Amino acid sequence: MSFEQGFLADITKRFRIYKEMGDKTLAQLSEKELFFRPSPESNNIAIIIQHMYGSMLSRWTNFLTEDGEKPWRKRDAEFEATEASKADLLSFWAEGWKCLLDTLSSLKPEDLTKTIYIRTEPLMAYDAILRQLAHYSSHVGQIILLGKMIRDKDWQSLSIVKGHSSEYNQSMGMR
Questions:
Q1: Is the separation of the CB atoms in 63 and 53 below 8 Å?
Q2: In terms of residue numbers, what domain contains 119?
Q3: CA distance 163 to 143
Q4: Looking at residue 132, which CATH number applies to its domain?
């Protein structure tokens, strides 16, 4: 396997991990909880999903051939309160991730060094991919933090349960 093939496989795996963490968080929340705001200036999970959806469709549609900031994108509107249902939000979430993952699966190793543009800024395709991984992972982290705040003691951990690292390590054959 070439470095480029490995990069595409590994980056796809990382995106899938963040999607799964978001999926597991969203599954724990009610429709009402998706609209919880810790302060008036904060985004709720519904707004974060709207923003990620807009970003994903814009960045990953025609990734190699069009600027990643599409003329049809209304970024400012992504941060406005929405009346969407949980089903609508989950649909946006799924569609955005599908666009991203379908695009990644269509890339060839030689595509990674092609120049693409985001807001007219030239980037190597691999750098644009890393840029989006950082962007989306930060938003998934926000979703998780809000989910943990909302669910509090009822939160179902997405990783090693607090206070159980030794048990986990032993189950993995570590000392």
A1: no
A2: 3-171
A3: 23
A4: 1.20.120.450
List helix spans (H) across the chain.
3-27, 45-60, 86-106, 125-151, 165-171
List the beta bridge partners of residue 118.
121
* Cα(142)–Cα(4) distance, integer angstroms: 30
Q: What is the pTM of this model?
A: 0.94
Q: What mean pLDDT comes out for the span 99-110? A: 98
The alpha carbon of 109 is separated from its chain's Cα centroid by a whole number of angstroms, namely 23
**In whole angstroms, what is the distance from residue 40 CA to residue 91 CA?**
26
Residues 13-42 pLDDT 10s:
999 999 999 999 999 999 999 999 999 999
Rounded distance between C-alpha atoms, residue 67 and residue 117, angstroms:
5
Taking Cα atoms as reference points, which of 146, 147, 144, 104 lies closest to residue 128? Answer: 104
Q: What are phi and psi of 29, to 5 degrees?
A: -110, 145
- Count other C-beta atoms under 10 Å from residue 120's C-beta: 8
- In degrees and rounded to multiples of 5, residue 122 shows phi and psi of -75, 135
Split into its structural domains, the chain has a count of 1
